[in-house]
């Protein structure tokens, strides 16, 4: 007897890797050794190691290129080929020869990259690697007050939330753009972004208050080492998202203050104003393109759209009581620099720090507090979707920043160093517009091409609708006929996205930051393709949602029904989809045998969309469990 179990059922409207092999950890052939004292507390998410720092320093004296092995928290070693990250120009690098920053490419799988930093304070690293069947971002940091001890870890959601809680009192704000530009000038910044293939390097003047320097060790070299790590992390984002590299100015050491009692700053949110004067006096306005200051108590405040604009381009500040790691560098510094590059807030919430006039109605494309860099993830109470931002910019932010870069190019010709790139931007195709029923999960699938065939493309689908501000989690989960319903998700390796996310759609579960449309309305989506070499492209499509009074869904077989003979009846609620304006007169019935990952088995094609059909399940020897049936 062939016993067939239908495990889950899902109706969907369908609109149109290489695995790293790494050498296992062995104590004979690596600089790293699992720290014996911590073996009992090591987990898949975190593991402690000791590092032969002197041997590593010797290895890294090999000119511009070198290789380094780094351990994942599972003990697996990964080898990266290093290249100087270009953060310190020659004059500055000569002053601090022990501070080095690199980019890295995995020698086994070039699609896996990383950032690596070395100084007298030790090594830090961030790299992509497989871990427990997923691709994860791995971090390595020295453990404070230890001798050559390091922690290799992935950031867990719990750690993200704890990190973000330290910053809830620091609500970033944007200075009124009217203070800077006349209306006629601001209007010029709304044009189409530049589409040239240039790579751009901007000279960054990064100031540190005495408090910041003391936090990181007390010397100019200590603060410079931390700033280089921070800029390397920022460039990991800016180079992919915008084709922009931030390079510290030749005399950046002149902006490092060591004594809080005698430096010219207040260690608060007004340090940006003071920094403008200090940077102009110490560096010279003609000698930098963008400036910023970091302190330990200032929150975030920056002039909007001041790239290369004399008198305003150094007026940006980021401060925190714990000014280090991603919770500071990405959530706050990249956010404030985003403002200086022209990007507005993208959240639609108004509670917590999202209130007080911080919402920007013309850019509020993200559900609730949002999740991208220009959101307020983690600091807006019940409207939070995540505890910490994801390390990429929303497509609207990219458009604003690209327009700012183009505006600066046209109006300040000495702004940035442009180098013609051999990279060609990809092309994006979001596909046709469709009409779909309300209350029904759906899939969007785009297409992309890239003349650079070795580029690793990543894809994102983002809802692109403005609407009424929301003031509660209930508001965020209610379709009021306009505004965002679906959160932004980090770029993925495939051009397809489930709405809501796959596991929620397959099991008919709710998903935080994803709400199915329930009203008659339009949903606009931007399909963005990144080549991860500084090039990107976007295309828009529209869904027209029709509320037919009920959801289009499979009603039989029920979940976990067991069948021992053929044929079986598949039944579904038509929900008016066979009538105008949807006009879906026929459907296909498909079966998955891998938990809904794919649907390789078509049980019926072009059957009338009348609510039921007889189908034959495939014959098997012994019991076979099929994961999902869908009607599309």
Task: Characterize the structure shown.
It is a single chain. With 632 residues, the chain is of the alpha+beta class. It folds into four domains: 44-154, no CATH class; 198-343, Collagenase (Catalytic Domain), CATH 3.40.390; 422-546, Sandwich (Immunoglobulin-like), CATH 2.60.40; 553-631. Helix content is 17%, strand content 30%. The strands form seven sheets. A nine-stranded antiparallel β-sheet has the order 3-4-11-10-9-8-7-6-5. Strands 12, 13, 14, 15, 16, 17 and 18 form a seven-stranded mixed β-sheet that branches. β30 and β31 (601-608) form a beta hairpin. α6 (220-242) packs across α8. The longest helix is centred in the middle third of the chain and has 23 residues, at 220-242. The protein is globular and about 80 Å long. Residues 1-11, 16-28, 162-187 and 622-627 have low confidence and may be disordered.
What share of the residues does DSSP label as strand, in percent? 25-35%
Tell me, what's the shape?
A: globular
Oligomer kind: single chain
Summarize the main sheet: 9 strands, antiparallel
Measured on Cα atoms, how large is the radius of gyration? Answer: 26 Å
Q: Order of strands across the widest beta sheet?
A: 3-4-11-10-9-8-7-6-5
């Amino acid at each position: 007897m062939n016993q067939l179990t239908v495990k889950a059922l899902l109706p969907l409207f369908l609109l149109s890797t290489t695995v790293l092999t790494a050498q296992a950890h062995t104590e004979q052939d690596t600089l790293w050794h699992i720290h014996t004292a911590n073996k009992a507390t090591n987990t898949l998410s975190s593991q402690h190691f000791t590092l032969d720092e002197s041997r590593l320093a010797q290895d890294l004296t090999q000119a511009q290129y070198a290789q380094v092995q780094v351990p994942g928290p599972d003990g697996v070693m990964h080898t990266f080929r290093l290249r100087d990250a270009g953060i310190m120009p020659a004059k500055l690098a000569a002053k601090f020869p022990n501070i080095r920053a690199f980019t890295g490419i995995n020698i086994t799988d070039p699609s896996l990259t990383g950032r690596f930093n070395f100084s007298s304070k030790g090594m830090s690293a961030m790299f992509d690697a497989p871990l427990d069947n997923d691709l994860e971002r791995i971090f390595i940091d020295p453990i404070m007050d230890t001798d050559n001890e390091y922690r290799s870890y992935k950031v867990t959601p719990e750690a993200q939330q704890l990190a973000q809680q330290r910053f809830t009192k620091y609500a970033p704000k944007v200075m009124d753009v009217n203070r800077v530009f006349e209306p006629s000038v601001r209007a010029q910044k709304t044009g189409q972004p530049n589409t040239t293939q240039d790579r751009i390097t901007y000279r960054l003047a990064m100031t540190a208050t005495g408090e910041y320097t003391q936090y990181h060790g007390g010397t100019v070299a200590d603060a410079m080492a931390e700033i280089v790590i921070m800029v390397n992390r920022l460039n990991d984002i800016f180079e992919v998202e915008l084709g922009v590299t931030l390079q510290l100015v030749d005399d950046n050491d002149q902006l490092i203050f060591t004594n809080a009692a005698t430096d010219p700053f207040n260690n608060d949110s007004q340090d940006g104003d003071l920094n403008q004067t200090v940077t102009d006096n110490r560096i010279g306005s003609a000698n930098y393109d963008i400036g910023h200051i970091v302190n330990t108590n200032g929150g975030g405040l920056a002039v909007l759209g001041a790239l290369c604009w004399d008198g305003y381009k150094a007026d940006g500040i980021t401060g925190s009581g714990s000014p280090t790691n991603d919770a500071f560098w990405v959530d706050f510094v990249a956010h404030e620099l985003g403002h200086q590059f022209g990007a507005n807030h993208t959240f639609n919430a108004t509670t917590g720090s999202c209130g007080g006039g911080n919402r920007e109605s013309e850019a509020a494309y993200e559900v609730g507090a949002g999740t991208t860099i220009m959101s307020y993830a983690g600091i807006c109470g019940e409207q939070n979707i995540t505890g910490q931002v994801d390390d990429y910019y929303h497509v609207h932010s990219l458009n604003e920043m690209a327009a700012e870069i183009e505006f600066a190019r046209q109006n300040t010709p000495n702004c940035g160093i442009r180098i013609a790139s051999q990279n060609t931007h990809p092309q994006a195709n979001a596909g046709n517009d469709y009409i779909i029923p309300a209350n029904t999960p759906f899939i969007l699938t785009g297409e992309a091409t890239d003349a650079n065939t070795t580029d690793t493309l990543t894809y994102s689908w983002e809802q692109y609708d403005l609407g009424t501000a929301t003031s509660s989690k209930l508001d965020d989960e209610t379709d009021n006929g306009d505004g965002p319903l679906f959160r932004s998700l980090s770029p993925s390796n495939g051009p397809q996205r489930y709405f809501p996310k796959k596991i929620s759609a397959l099991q008919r579960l709710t998903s935080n930051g994803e709400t199915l449309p329930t009203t008659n309305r339009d949903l606009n989506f931007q399909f963005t393709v990144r080549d991860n070499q500084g090039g990107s492209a976007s295309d828009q499509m529209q869904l027209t949602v029709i509320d037919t009074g009920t959801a289009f869904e499979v009603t039989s077989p029920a979940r976990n029904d067991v069948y021992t003979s053929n044929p079986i009846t598949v039944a579904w609620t038509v929900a008016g989809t066979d009538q105008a304006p949807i006009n879906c007169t026929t459907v296909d019935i498909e079966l998955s045998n891998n938990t809904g990952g794919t649907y390789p088995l078509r049980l019926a094609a072009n059957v009338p969309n009348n609510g039921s059909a007889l189908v034959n399940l495939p014959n098997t020897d012994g019991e076979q469990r099929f994961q999902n049936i869908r009607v599309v």
